[in-house]
Write a structure and sequence with these properties.
- By secondary structure, the chain is α/β, with parallel strands linked by helices.
- The chain has a single domain, classed as 3-Layer(aba) Sandwich (Protocatechuate 4,5-dioxygenase, Chain B), CATH 3.40.830.10.
- The protein contains 11 helices and 8 strands.
- The strands form 2 sheets. The chain has a 6-stranded mixed sheet, with helices on both faces. The protein has a two-stranded antiparallel ribbon with strand order 6-7.
- Helix 1 crosses helix 4, helix 5 packs across helix 10 and helix 7 packs antiparallel against helix 8.
- InterPro entries: Extradiol_dOase_DODA, Xdiol_dOase_suB.
Length: 272
C-alpha cells in the first residue's frame, strides 16, 4: 500500500433516528458506500471530530481513555419514546498512544460508523480516536485545526462528522420545508466546485454571513467539523459528494471527500 497521503471526509451523520426510522434507506446506502471506500484505503487509524464533542474554552480535548465506551447524547424524551436506542453500542478499538501523539501535535459518534462499518459484517479493526472541536463558532480556528492534524505521520484518516444543515426548528416542528437546506447545500456544492482550494474555503467561511445561517445552525457545533476537513484538504481541489438532495425534516445529509484516492493496483483494476 502506498505511503501517499490519505484523502479526508466530511460525513453528514444525522441523529440516532437514521438507524431505525423509515425513509432513510438512500442515506444509509450512501454511507455504506463511503464506508467501503474507506475500508479499501486501509488506514492505520481514524481520527474524527464530531458535532457532539466540544472542548471547554479555548482548548481541544483528546480522549485518552482506553478502552472507550459509547456515550448516548439523547434527551430525556427518548427514554419513553424509543428506549431501545440506549442499548445501541459500537464495538471499536481506541488508542491512548495515538491520542497522546495527537494531543502533543495540537499543543505545538458512532451513529455514522454503525452504518458505514456494520458490526458482524464490515467492522473496522483499527483504532478510532475522537477529538473535540473548539467551543464557540470560530470557523477559521477549525480550519487551522485541520491543518495541524494533517501533519500526523502515517496512514491516519481524518474525518469530520456533523451536518451542513442542522435545522433544529425544522426537527422540532417536523416540517417538510426544505428551503434552507436546499439553499445552503447548493452553496456548498458551488463552493466545492470552486477553481481553487483557497476560493473554496473562502466561500465556505462566508456562510456565517448568510441571513439563513441562524436557521441552519441555531448553534454551530454540528458544522465545525466541516471546517476541520477543509483544513486537512487545504491543498486538494478534487472532491466527491454523497447524499446530495436528500433532505429529511429540513436537514441536509450531504457528505463529501476532499482529495484523490491513492493510485493502487485495486483502483487500477476498478475495485476501489
Amino acid at each position: 500500500m502506498s505511503n501517499e497521503k490519505l484523502p479526508t471526509y466530511f460525513i453528514g451523520h444525522g441523529g440516532v433516528s437514521i438507524l431505525f426510522k423509515p425513509g432513510y434507506g438512500p442515506v444509509q446506502q450512501d454511507l455504506r458506500e463511503i464506508g467501503k471506500e474507506i475500508k479499501a484505503l486501509k488506514p492505520e487509524a481514524i481520527v474524527i471530530t464530531c458535532g457532539h464533542f466540544q472542548g471547554e474554552g479555548d482548548a481541544i480535548e483528546v480522549n485518552l481513555k482506553e478502552p472507550t465506551k459509547v456515550w448516548h447524547d439523547l434527551g430525556p424524551s427518548w427514554h419513553t419514546t424509543f428506549p431501545h436506542v440506549f442499548e445501541y453500542q459500537y464495538a471499536h478499538k481506541s488508542s491512548r498512544a495515538l491520542g497522546e501523539k495527537t494531543s502533543g501535535l495540537i499543543e505545538t459518534r458512532w451513529v455514522p460508523f454503525k452504518l458505514m462499518f456494520p458490526e458482524g459484517e464490515d467492522e473496522l479493526d483499527i483504532p478510532i480516536l475522537q477529538i473535540s472541536t473548539y467551543a464557540g463558532n470560530d470557523l477559521n480556528a477549525h480550519v487551522r485545526l485541520g491543518e495541524a492534524l494533517s501533519s500526523l505521520p502515517g496512514r491516519i484518516l481524518l474525518i469530520g462528522s456533523g451536518m451542513i444543515v442542522h435545522n433544529l426548528r425544522a426537527t422540532r416542528e417536523g416540517t417538510t420545508d426544505t428551503t434552507v437546506a436546499r439553499s445552503i447545500e447548493d452553496a456548498a456544492l458551488k463552493a466545492l466546485s470552486a477553481p481553487t482550494p483557497s476560493e473554496r474555503d473562502a466561500q465556505f467561511l462566508a456562510f456565517q454571513e448568510r441571513e439563513d445561517w441562524i436557521d441552519a445552525h441555531p448553534t454551530e457545533e454540528h458544522v465545525l467539523p466541516l471546517y476541520m476537513t477543509l483544513g486537512v484538504g487545504r491543498n486538494w481541489s478534487e472532491y466527491k459528494v454523497w447524499n446530495q438532495d436528500r433532505y429529511i425534516v429540513g436537514q441536509s445529509y450531504l457528505s463529501f471527500r476532499l482529495g484523490k484516492l491513492p493510485l493502487t493496483g485495486d483502483r487500477l483494476n476498478g475495485h476501489l
